[in-house]
What we know:
Blueprint: H1 2-24, E1 32-35, E2 41-46, E3 52-58, E4 64-71, E5 77-84, E6 87-88, E7 90-96, E8 99-106, E9 109-117
Antiparallel strand pairs: 1-2, 2-3, 3-4, 4-5, 5-6, 5-7, 7-8, 8-9
Amino acid sequence: MKNILSLLVVCLLANVAVAQCSKTCSKDVKDKYVLADDGLIEATLYHDNGVVAQKGFYTQENKLQGEWISYDTQGNKTAIAQYNNGNKVGTWKFFQGDIMKEVTYASSKIAKVKTWEANDTRVVSYR
């Protein structure tokens, strides 16, 4: 009987500890939307772990506008994109470790792709 009672107390304490952590340890962050002075809506979107996933702007008509930056769940930049009234424009950059891809858009279609790779990095100092 003592073993069953002890097991029940341990289970109850474990349940309370997990419940407390889920309330206080949660990084449940709501996406943010702020009306900017120029009439655009500045958006900051978050991953489930609370790290910023994307930053950018919307028009009043809910179309992507200007620069959008994407991040992975660790906060590393994964992409820089450009939009004009919802259309893909300019040169986008995608980052994957030591590789960067530049994708140039024309009329919202891919016009050119360049791949860059960091093979050798050196630190230069000026005294």
